[in-house]
Amino acid sequence: MTVISDPHVQPTKRPRRLFKNLMAKLASIPMILTALVVFVGGTAWTVVYSFTGSRMLPKTNWVGLDQYERLWNSDRWIISITNLGIYGSCSLVLTLVIGFSLAACLDRKIRFESAFRSIFLYPFALSFVVTGLAWQWILNPDFGVQSIVRGWGWESFVFNPLHDANTVIYGLLIAGLWQGTGLIMCIMLAGLRGIDEDIWKATRVDGIGTIKTYIVVIIPMMRPVFITSLVLIASGIIKLYDLVVAQTGGGPGLASEVPAKYVIEYMFRAQNLGQGFAASTMMLCSVVVILIPWAYLEFGGRKRG
Amino acid sequence: MANITTGLSDGPRGPKPKKAFSRANIILYGTLIMVSMYYLLPLYVMIMTSLKGMPEIRMGNVFGPPMEITFEPWVKAWSEACTGINCDGLSRGFGNSVRILIPSVLLSISIASVNGYALSNWKFKGSEVFFTILIIGAFIPYQTMLYPIVILLRELGLMGSIGGLVLVHTIFGMPILTLLFRNYFASIPQELFSAARVDGAGFWQIYFQIMLPMALPIFVVAIILQVTGIWNDFLFGVIYTKPATYPMTVQLNNIVNSVQGIKEYNVNMAATLLTGLVPLIIYFASGKLFVRGIAAGAVKG
User: Fold this and answer.
1) Among A136, A130, A190, which Cα is nearest to A163's?
2) I want to staple A132 with a disulfide (CB 3.0 to 4.6 A). Which of A55, A247, B183, B234 is the partner?
3) Contacts of B272 in chain A (CB under 8 A)
4) So what's the ipTM on this one?
5) CATH fold group of domain B91-298
């Protein structure tokens, strides 16, 4: 971005600098406060207090890394992390694959494109609570998919992910994909539309097949789009909370707990603030781990280019 | 495959016209229709379930259309369903959500549009730094900031009130909205701004008389983004409000996932649909603008 040079207000005398653009500065106060107090201040506060033994109220009795030790020794946290890992990797791969495939299908100059697009995208307008409750009902073993298939005569059919500790995370995945793939499809479609028609002509002249063109030519060209999608999906996965609360409530038992839920349970229900702070700091760390390579790719690459 | 775009002027030298029912086409449309069914299934099942009576639901077959259409579940979900001791249905949550939504949308958009305008036309030392912090902040998990905000709201005396939640929505809507407006104002020709400055217009004059009227489309996009986002919020609602001020999503979850009593699936589904109705209407009414809104929300930087 270039700094706009204003011919009328010249940065002449030193004392006037603070009052230059005074209105703009005043108008930016909400933004500055949000950035500094809430985002920087709030995050720093949580990180600092994660080293205390705060229980019901935040206190400054320093306990070093005790909270983290307790956190990593807690079964519930390990289950949460594992669940997030399984959900996250499946969701990441499947969302990208489904999103891209759907976008590619829609980009084949088909009829009713906007109708299909509306259908794929509408779940994204719904909240996770609505999504979770709808799928809770469809996956209900007594009335939903399982009972329907049994009604067709396959008496031993078992499809009851929400009440099976081993598969509950895939039940969440079905709902999560239903809600989120439309967005990625839309972004991918925008990316595909941005690709020059001449590329297609060139590959056709060279006799490269359609699917091969997508894999060899188009996907590498869409690298920025994929990176954006990746960041979006990843930041969405870490926030995963509402869906779990609505669809399974973390159950059966602790089988579908996730870190975001762990944090909130400890902060607001179990009145063990220190644990909540430590867990949320771990969440922050995981975001940093994702963000730094991305920022490097995005901004480091731009400078070179 | 189904590519039929080669121009008409190609004449006989062009590729053979593709048949409408080529194998590739059947696979393509077949896949799309199958996938569409997966996406439409939950909506269909919700609607069907919400129109059935409980005896019919107990007979099974959630996928079948109702034999006898009844709107009783809808009425019950709206005005009688219980959460804890309150039995006045979702209407209370709806009212709360509206009372949260309107000020949040107005406040967050007006603040963010002025921010975006200042950032693109009235840069000052450090403005980009604050903006970068704001954008990075959008990626920080909310969980890290939940408790400090509790303290903040308590200090302001807003904890548990609708005003507090409005403030929270304004704060967390700021990064994306500011980005949206900043990029839009940056795309407006600079000459326009300079000309207004030559004529002696000030910060607010330029904003209200030149920028605001030109930015109406982006305001619509921002409104769509915020209305759906705030309406669908669950996390902030559950943490920063109390039962009397619960927004609709929180109340819905409490109604459906309450353990007491017999589960009335038809009422639950009617309640779920009622909650989803507002964003759905906005989605189908706004069409392309919704896509633009989420694309703007998605493609950061």
Assistant:
1) A136
2) A247
3) 130, 133-134
4) 0.86
5) MetI-like fold (1.10.3720)
